[in-house]
Write a structure and sequence with these properties.
Helices cover about 40% and strands about 20% of the residues. The chain is built from 15 helices and eleven strands. A hairpin with a 4-residue loop joins β6 and β7. α10 crosses α14. The longest helix has 21 residues. It starts with 20 loop residues before the first helix and ends in a 21-residue tail after the last helix.
Amino acid sequence: MGAPSNLRRPGQGPVASRRPAVAASARDPQVLYAALDLGTNNCRLMIATLHNSQFKIVEAFSRIVRLGEGLSLSGKLADRAMERALRALKICAEKIEKRGAVRIRAVATQACRIARNGRDFVARVERETGLRLTIISPEEEARLSVMGCASLLDGTGLDPRPRAALVMDVGGGSTELSWVELTAGGKRGQPLNASGQMPKPRYWISLPVGVVTLAERFPEPDSGGTRDWFDGMVTDVADRLRAFTDADSLRDAFDSGEAYIVGTSGAITSLAGMHLGLERYDRSRVDGLWMEDSHCKDVIQRLLDLGREGREQQPCIGRDRADLVLAGAAILEAVQILWPCQRLRVADRGLREGLLLSMARKKPRRRRGRGRTRAPQAATA
C-alpha cells in the first residue's frame, strides 16, 4: 500500500512517500496520526503517536486564517480569506508529509458548509496542497468535540458531584452545544486516551453564530456604549437558544447545581489566561481549569474596560483575537443565562482530539479468508 490516500501531491496521484504505510508501521509500532480542523476562524493541526491506548502529541500547529471573513454578508468565501487558509494548509501538508503520518483525518466546518463556493474551495485545496478535506455536519462536529473533551467530563472534586455537563464548542461561524449525562470519568490532566467508553451527547444543537459572524454583525463602537453593545450580542444569542427545549429533562441538574459547562474555544481559553494573569499563554495551566461564574464576569468587565487597543496588549489575546474575544464571551454569557452554572471548565482541546480518537477507535479492516489484519489505513473523513 502507498502513502495515506487522503494526502496527495498537487496534480498527481498518491504521494510517493519515502516511508510507505506498511513499512512505517513495521518499523515503528507508534504509528503517527494527524488531525486537521479547518474552521471559520482557525486552521489547526495535531500530529500524535498512539501507544498503550494513549496519545502523545508530537507536533501541533494553529493559525488564525479567518476563512469566514465577510461570509455572512456575501454568502461566499472571499479570495483573500481563501488565500490565507491555503497558506496555512500548505504548511500543514508539509508537516504531515515530513513527519510521515500514516493515518490522517482532515475536516472543514461551518464556513465551507454554508458558503456557495465551499465545495469548490475544498477541491482547490486538494489540487494545491494534496489534502483531502471532508465537510462534516454540525452533528458530527458536536460529537467529535464531546469526544475530544471526554477526560474533562468527570467533575472531580466538586460537591455535589455533577450529573450533567454542557459542552460548548464556540467556533468562528457556529456554536455547537451538547448536553451530556455524566458517569464516573477521568481526572484533571488525564492523557488523551483511546480506551474506554466515549461520552455521547444526549441532546445537541448547532447555533449558526460564532465569534466571527457575531463580531461582524455587531461591530464594536469606537468609543462609549460598550456595555450596551456587549449586552446586544448576549441578547441576540440568547434569543436563538431560547426556543430549544429538547434538553429540558436535564434542567433539574442545572437548577440544583449539579451541572457545569465545558467551554472549548480560543475565546474561552483567552478568558482563562486573563483570569490567571498569565504573561504568556500556558496550555498546561489553562486546560482543565475550573472558573467560577463570578470569575468569568469579572474578566469580561475588565475586557470591556480595556477597549480594543488595551485588549491587543494582553498576552493571551493579542491583535488577532482582540475583536473576537468579547463575541465569544457574549456567547458564553448567553448560554449561562438560559442554562445557569456556577462553574465553567476550560478546555484547550476539542475537535482535533476527537478526530484522533475517532481514528484510533476505528476497527482495522481484515482480509477475507486469511485472518490477518491489514496494514494501517489512512482514515477517510
